[in-house]
Amino acid sequence: MSCNYAEGLSPYEHKGILGVPEKFDSLEKFNEKCEILARLMCLSKHTVVHTGAGISTSAGIPDFRGPNGVWTLEKEGKRPSTNVSFADAQPTKTHMILKKLVDCNKVQYIVSQNIDGLHLKSGLSRKYLSELHGNMFIDECSLCKRQFVRSCPVETVGKKCSGVPCASSHNGGRPCRGRLYDGVLDWEHDLPENDLLMAEWHSSIADLSICLGTTLQIIPSGNLPLETVKYGGKLVICNLQPTKHDNKADLIINYYVDDILQKVMNILKIDIPVYNENDNLIKLAENSVIEWTIHKKDVLLLEKIFKAKCKGVKKKRTLIKIKRNCEELLLTNQENSKHIKLEIKEECL
């Protein structure tokens, strides 16, 4: 449960802005914006989706900073009334749509802040997923750093050792003397290196970043979508609350993410799959050892692509921005500033 996970974390006062009221676009604006989003996705050659706790609320897992979020209610001495266990929760419509969009090459990568394991349950391949804050259904070896899927949620959080020997030798690998520990980060932990590198590089080479169900308050994960903007790409934010980077977005949709993606799928004429338990690696892990490690070859390949596309581009964009700011010093209102920003982005393409 989200509550149990939150309670297992170390005490921490600076949890961000909590309980900001939600807002909804009118139906007319919602339809119009979904059309724009679908068009942006069709034009994009490399789309990255950034997901937060808001994509799992329809599965019965509460978010953290919403009006009924875990930490919002915690300040009032309350707990969420709905709190489905991680073991029982099933992927939402959003999870299944994202899996389909990856399968049909409309989305190239997903950067997740979620620890609930629903991307894993959906059948999404590790090749297309960074899990920046960990996963309740993953163990990691203290020595070889290989990751393995669990058949049940971890009982601890904060990268604590379970004492179980590394499973690498059971999966065709070399014997390892390491011990497994939970892969869920606490406040003080660094983000997993390969997950962070893949997330940063994909965000940098992306033509389009789409943020779903996150207020983007936690860093560095919340700042990764800005890498897309820095290199000339577009940013779309889909969330019910204002986010930290609304002023940098090209499109903001205030509506339920399930409804947004369902509408987009209808526009794109792509069928929405249903959850199939046979694709759930957590179920398969009951009878076999399943590895969940990012392959080194995928990291090296993406590094080459990143360097080929982005080397020197950020400096060029900075020079353009300085030049434009000097030339347009008198244009200080918000509309003109936005216009300048879009021109800068277009010149970098």
Mind sketching the topology for me?
Elements: H1 2-8, H2 27-43, E1 47-51, H3 70-74, H4 93-103, E2 109-112, H5 118-122, E3 129-131, E4 138-141, E5 147-149, E6 161-165, E7 179-182, H6 193-205, E8 208-212, H7 225-230, E9 234-238, E10 251-253, H8 257-268, H9 281-284, H10 296-310, H11 313-327, H12 334-348
Parallel strand pairs: 1-2, 1-8, 2-3, 8-9, 9-10
Antiparallel strand pairs: 4-5, 4-7, 6-7
Give a quick account of the main beta sheet: strands, pairing sense, barrel closure: 6 strands, parallel
Parts with pLDDT < 50 across at least 5 consecutive residues: 315-349
Which outline best applies? globular
Strand content range: 5-15%
Mean pLDDT: 86
Topology order in helix (H) and strand (E) letters: HHEHHEHEEEEEHEHEEHHHHH
Report the span from N to C terminus. Answer: 44 Å
- Strands ordered across the widest β-sheet: 3-2-1-8-9-10
Helical segment count? 12
Find the count of extended strands (DSSP E, 2+ residues): 10
Helix content: 25-40%
What would you call the structural class? Answer: alpha/beta
Work out the radius of gyration: 21 Å
